[in-house]
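Morning. Coffee machine broken again, so started the prediction first thing and wrote up yesterday's gels while waiting. Chain of 273 residues, entered below exactly as on the submission form.
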Amino acid sequence: MAAHPFRMAMNHVHHFSVGAITPVLAYLLSTLGCALGLLSMQRARAQHGWSKRLWLALGAVSIGGTGIWVMHFVGMLGFAVDGTEIRYDLFRTLLSLVVAIGIVGLGLSAVGYGKATWPRLIGAGTITGIGVAAMHYLGISAMHMNAQVGYDTLLVVASIVIAVVAATAALWATLNVRGIAATIGAALIMGIAVSGMHYTGMAAMAVEVFGGGSGQLTGIEAYSFFGPLAMVLGVLTAVSLLTVGISSSEKEIEEDLWAEQQLEKLLGDRAKP
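Came back before lunch.
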């Protein structure tokens, strides 16, 4: 039986073309983003009004932006195909960032307000996971190369299942994880889940380069985009770390609220005739 042309072309696809640096760096950045997101959600749990919304927004940017999208893009820096250059459509690349942050923000809001029941958690995790998978494949569609891309259906489904399970577990963690040690442990596990989803999705790809692979390509080179991106994200991450570092912890916020309630109660009792 003749081999499928896409299967033959898989031998020319390289997911780690620059070695271990891209998967390791991508995992570390994903873990950092998830840790920042968990710390932000711990503070959001004890807040109300605009303060809660701002912490939810920071959690969405940290998990959706750094934890997921940056992990995806850094991982893509190690992706190469023999016989063709790869460029990226800037609009679709940035749109995938908006999708990642937006869908994570939606999931965090769904569990951050109201009673966090299991049906709500599973529903929010399913929607968020499907959205994260959509972001991944939208990011892949941003690639321009002189090749035809096909997908292994089973691996695509597997990547979506991983995304849904990971998203549900992540939302559960934002509601239940407390303390530095537990936060670090949860972030390390979340980083593995995000990386697993990414590389499962990438493994689903099969590429067949057009004859010669030398056609004119539009778009931007990955590394020319990564330089400015790294600077912007470095500043945002530093600001996020500073914000989390100087803010009160969930326990401190709860203690302050309790003290305020006791003071109001005492003053109210004294004001009674």
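Residues 49-76 form the longest helix (28 residues). Going to sketch it on the whiteboard this afternoon.
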